[in-house]
What we know:
Elements: H1 15-18, E1 102-108, E2 114-118, E3 126-131, E4 135-140, E5 143-144, E6 150-151, E7 166-172, H2 176-179, E8 181-187, E9 191-198, E10 213-219, E11 227-232, E12 238-242, E13 260-264, E14 284-287, E15 295-297, E16 304-308, E17 313-319, E18 347-350, E19 358-363, E20 376-380, E21 386-391, E22 397-402, H3 404-407, H4 409-412, E23 416-421, E24 427-431, E25 435-441
Antiparallel strand pairs: 1-25, 2-3, 3-4, 4-5, 4-6, 7-8, 8-9, 9-10, 11-12, 12-13, 13-14, 15-16, 16-17, 17-18, 19-20, 20-21, 21-22, 23-24, 24-25
Amino acid sequence: MALFSTRNSSSVWVLAFLGAAGAALSAQACGGDDGGSSETSGTPTSTTSSQGGAGPSTGGNGNTGGDGGSTSSNSGGGGGGVGGGSSQVDCGLEAQGPVPDLQLTPISTNLDRPVFVTAAPGDNERLFVVEQEGRVRVIVNGVLQGAPFIDISALTDQPGQVDEFGLLSMVFHPDYATNGRFFLFYSDSDASVVSEFARSANDPNVASPGVVQTILNFPGAVGQHYGAMMAFAEDGYLFVSSGDRGDSSTSQDIDDIHGKLLRLDVDDVDTAPPGNLPGGHPLVWNYGLRNSWRFSIDRCTQDLYISDVGGNWEEVNIEPPNTGHRNYGWPIADQGTECTTGTCAVVAHNHNSGDCSIVGGYVYRGTGIPNMNGRYIYGDSCSLRIRSFRWGGGDTVALEEELTDNLNSDGTLQYMTSFGEDNVGNLYVLDLAGGLYRIDAQQ
């Protein structure tokens, strides 16, 4: 099952370098592992280790509130795109034991097919929620605004129940506060596109409706495996995930743009950044991915956490900063942590216990939840499980703990689509049924 243009372009990395036909990027949190792969037998657990982990951080508390009956809490707040806002957290804390009692605090339950949430660097008042049908909604100090930030539904095919068309993610330029630039990843029946847009000069809750420029265009049409995640690294270059569009042969072909993690320069879209994988498509950073619906960058360590929706295994891959050029194995090594080709997953779950579509999350960097600092939090859209661990480098993980019962995620959510974070390190969970929830310690 899968969840899941007017392209004004001053320059587009498309036909000259794309090679093979189109691109369908994927959705895992929004649509899962599907079709054609047999499940592997074995114990449906992740790898374990007793050794310690990467250092963590703290943040500040914010305000909450909410529309439609959301509850208040003392650990709310807004703001902070992926890879941004690191100055607002303290990276000196480190989880040492089990997490306390938790809750999913509703921030809004009136959203329409929400698939991503983020915030602008330095903005602690607003959260921006991506709705799959083509709108970005704004939540200001816990209150959902009536008018959308932007509506690009005219640029996309409307999503059905079993495809991944529509607006799938957004990211803010690191200098958004001064330049107002942001980027949307959206797909229709012909292509998937990354385009640049601009904030209104007069209202921080409104964006200008027109495309400024098209950054990427993935031609081709299928309803699954689009990838769709974007995040800025500390060096200012943008990572973008591209799915295999349902054609697994593309993932191992380094000349093909599909099934990859791409790296590009939004300030010079005609030129590939230095340091990308040599010998193939100029934008390729990593290859051998099936559908990295969500990845993230730890704001304290810059480690890259890449989840990948697999055929037999749902994987979390981790790489330290500036160590790309990796083959993550799809489809020749769909073997979880015991792969024989490429770079093995650090943690993996097979499908014997109901998992089918991993939803990559974030390393917690807030202050509101003791013993969460430095833990990576992630889930699965089918089982609705939420899990955590702390990475210790290499294949070493510690403090593995399932949080499903603690959060009652399988009783609260209907279809988990994404996690998100704000400037002060709070983590959020989205439900396709319309809910945005913050992960809080129980009061």
